[in-house]
Here is the input.
Amino acid sequence: MTQTWLRDPTAETSAIKRPRVKPPASLQGLTIGLFDIGKTRSNEFLDQVEKRLGERGFKTKRYAKPTNAKVAPVEVMQKVVSEADAVLIALSD
Amino acid sequence: MAERLEAKHRGGTLRARKIELGEYDDPMEACFERGWTDGLPVTPPTDERVLRMLSGTRLAPGESVGCIPPYLADCTIEKVAINAVLAGCKPEYMPVLLAAVEAALEPVFTLHGVTATTYFSSPVIIVNGPVAKKIGMNSGLNALGQGNRANATIGRALNLIVRNVGGGKPGEVDRATLGAPSKFTLCFAEDESDPSWEPLSVSRGFARGVSTVTLFQGHGVEAFVDQKTRTPEALSRSFGLALVKLGHPRLIQSARAVLVLSPEHYRIYSEAGWGRREIESALFEATIRPGSEILAGLDGIGEGVTAERASEQVPKFHEDGLMVVRAGGKAGLFSAILPGWLAGRNRLELQPVTKEIRE
Here is the structure.
């Protein structure tokens, strides 16, 4: 065989590893974001979670993206980041 | 010899990272080892081959075609050409492939979701217009099967771009539960041999004679057999029986599908004077069912619509959710259905996309 050079078909990027945010030691006093990803019946699931968290005195806020077919719009992500201390993402069907 | 000389003198104009193989390395194995393939062997992207592929477009190699999901990496014409080499394309396929990439990157095509879904879907490519004949695409016998280079490699190239440039790999962002063979490639041309038939591209707003690609979020192929029905009304109802069972007979989420109408089934419609509009409208009507028949919980089966829809007439598809495309060999009262992605339930957020092919 002779010497060969190939051209890279990839984006030639490399992932940056970021450490995960540490989970809070307690949810007391924090705002818990409840994020509906747009799958069917996500809202029903989150209604239940919201009710149960409310009964335990936790503060919640609801967020949603329009469809599970697309990534969340930047404005929604920014709203979550600025308003919630922890986020629960619902995956349902 | 000419290509070797060109590579020697113009190879320096390519910008993609150059990977040197050892004297005893097998280039095809090297491509596997680097994760560049869909599981089938690829053509090693040497400078000669990449330059030859770039001769298929007038666009500059450094020009960007956009950012490819899921990781939104910038993709140049040169990267498209390299992946076209991997897939086995000829240079004259480049305009079709570039139009397919352009269509896939329209937000309403939702390429990220199609790549990431647990469902079976991937981009299905349908080509219309004179380009199909020019590059030798198949719209006839075995149009949805193997054996035609353009059909096979254009679809494959788009999927390799998503894999290699966008980073959409099975087991990583691609979370398909089972996947489908159509995730390798599903690309074909429409049979436009009957001038009285309105091609898909025309129904989607393009002039006759304009070459286009239409991308659909789907998979294939579901067989449809009816060798006995002879009237257009009854044939539409017969198709309806098959269409309502996509995914699950009681499911109304997928909301879109492509019906690939074979010549023998088409003849039943055309002899009765039916065109695209009449067929699509009859299919829509034939797939509306009483809610009471598809209720969740009937016979203990959980799938279905909720109780409050019992008195409604429930359509399986969106009103514009069924696209009929003519293709296939002359013999066989068989047609094919390409089911849409489940996320299609949101009509405005997710739609098929058609783009003009600029040669």
